[in-house]
Amino acid sequence: MEIKVLGTGCKKCTEVDKLVREVLAEINIPANVEKVEDFAQIAQYGVMLTPGLVINGKVKVTGKVPSKADIKKMIEEEK
């Protein structure tokens, strides 16, 4: 599973990264988690508001911090 957290390093972007890693540890699903901070790469996903969350190439969240429950549901849908 490939997960990308899109954002320029702001507080909300850091929070999404932390929540994703916590959820993965709780549900014991292996994944490669990458923080993407380059705006050109972020724009390639069509994301104009950060933070963004991309799971297996699909944009799942833009412009907000999802709850842990929402993140868990998104990850489980993609496994």
Primary descriptors:
79 residues, alpha+beta, Glutaredoxin, 3 helices, globular
Detailed description of the structure:
A 4-stranded mixed β-sheet has the order 2-1-3-4. It has helices spanning 11-27, 39-44, 68-78; strands spanning 2-6, 32-36, 52-55, 58-62. The protein has one domain (2-78): Glutaredoxin (3-Layer(aba) Sandwich). 43% of the residues lie in helices and 24% in strands. The longest helix is centred in the first third of the chain and has 17 residues, at 11-27. Helix 1 links the parallel strand 1 (2-6) and strand 2. Helix 1 packs across helix 3 (68-78). The mean pLDDT is 96. With 79 residues, it is of the alpha+beta class.
Gross CATH architecture = 3-Layer(aba) Sandwich
Query: In percent, how much strand structure appears in the residues?
Result: 15-25%
What structural class do you assign from the helix and strand content? alpha+beta
For this structure, the CATH topology is Glutaredoxin
The succession of helices and strands, N to C, reads EHEHEEH
Task: Give the overall pLDDT as a whole number.
Answer: 96
Q: Tally the helices: what do you get?
A: 3
Distance between the termini: 7 Å
User: What is the CATH level 1 assignment?
Assistant: Alpha Beta
Q: Let me know the CATH homologous superfamily.
A: Glutaredoxin
Shape: globular
Total beta strand runs = 4
> Number of domains in the coordinates?
1
Physical arrangement of strands within the biggest beta sheet: 2-1-3-4
Which segments are poorly predicted (pLDDT under 50) over 5 or more consecutive residues? none
The residue fraction in helices comes out at 40-55%
The main pleated sheet reads as: 4 strands, mixed
| Radius of gyration from CA coordinates | 11 Å
